[in-house]
Amino acid sequence: MGLFEQIFRPTKAKESQKALQDAKGLFTTLTAYRPAFTTWNGAIYESLIIRASIDARARHISKLKVETYGTANPSLQAKMRLAPNQWQSWSQFMYRVSTITDVYANCIITPVFDEYMTITGYYPILPTKCEIIDYKDEPWLRYKFSNGKVGAVEFKKCAIINKFQLRNDFFGEPNTALDETMKLLHIQREGVEEAIKNTASIRFMARLNNFSTASDLAKERERFTRENLSTDNGGFLLFPNTYTDIKQIDSKPYNVDADQLKLIYSNVYNYFGVNEDVLQNKAIGDSWSAFYEGAIEPFAIMWSEQMSRAMFSERERAQGSGVMATANRLQFMSNNDKLTISSTMLDRGVMSINEIRDIWNLAPVEDGDRRIIRGEYYDATNKLEETDEE
């Protein structure tokens, strides 16, 4: 049994086939665009700087802490606290969701069913095509994968994470806005390759007299190279008097125009919301907070809302059940800032010992949830009342 059969169980596959056969067509949207997307533009992930930018954001998103809350569906909540499914850890799950979203502007998270048709987890899938169909007046997601297999799942049980949503009511726009930058990156790479080849291949230039045909020139070049430029030539160069204007070419390394390269990289950074400090793991303090608020927090909010909608019914959410992805932003402060926060918040009872240990990425200790207040601190109101009584 493969991954497809594990996610789309045989009994579920039958129901999916019925939905595919009895579907009235595509689900009607408010716009004229088809409620569908395809994964044709994955080539952007083959670019070094773009992959590094996508990876930088995904690495930080993979550190988000997933927590479920409320009383609804306790068995599913218990499983989700450990892992999203039987094949991935939470960090792997979040990394892949972020990467798929950046590459294709859409990521679909579908439920995983057991043999009793009970949801046991969720998995981020990457179909070649996804459409929203109308089955019994309800929207269903119809998937087609590269191996030719097709499946369908109720829309309300799936989560869709997207970017650049404008013309389509459900899916984000593809990364076509990045095409011009991709072309510039390609031209730069080809220019560097050709320049290196040219500077490494031509060493000498000379005029050869009394040779009339191209084949004669080619033969003489091969002979001269073989006899004089090989490693066993004795270190002594001889040539006949038919050679004139002999010059050695001074090969210089090719340097990419720094300003032009900076502009191209800046376009990539702006598109994915990163910078050099984030890519090189130098962002701390206010710099990292700005990156978190601009690139991590919006993802965490959308993911939390979509997963809560998929996991729990409207009534269950109204009663306080949900799922949330959060990050301890204090962990990314500099050590001096951490020390200041720790000493200030601990002795005033604002934070517990374990909360302080969490800032330093340390495991909790027994009885560490107590709050400590320094003895010289008093409640100002009570102190004034004691003074008046005296």
Give the overall silhouette: extended
Q: Structural class from helices and strands? A: alpha+beta
Strand order of the largest sheet: 1-5-6-7
Radius of gyration: 32 Å
Most strands sheet:
4 strands, antiparallel
Helix content: 40-55%
Work out the helix count: 14
- Low-pLDDT residue intervals, each spanning 5 or more residues: none
Oligomeric state as shown: single chain
What is the rounded distance between the termini? 82 Å
How much is the average pLDDT? Answer: 81
Number of strands: 11
What's the helix-strand series?
HHEHEHHEEEEEEHEHEHHHHEHHH
Strand content: 15-25%
Topology:
Layout: H1 3-7, H2 10-22, E1 36-38, H3 48-61, E2 65-69, H4 74-82, H5 90-104, E3 106-113, E4 119-125, E5 129-135, E6 138-144, E7 150-154, E8 159-162, H6 179-201, E9 204-208, H7 214-228, E10 243-248, H8 258-272, H9 276-279, H10 285-311, H11 314-318, E11 322-326, H12 335-346, H13 353-359, H14 380-389
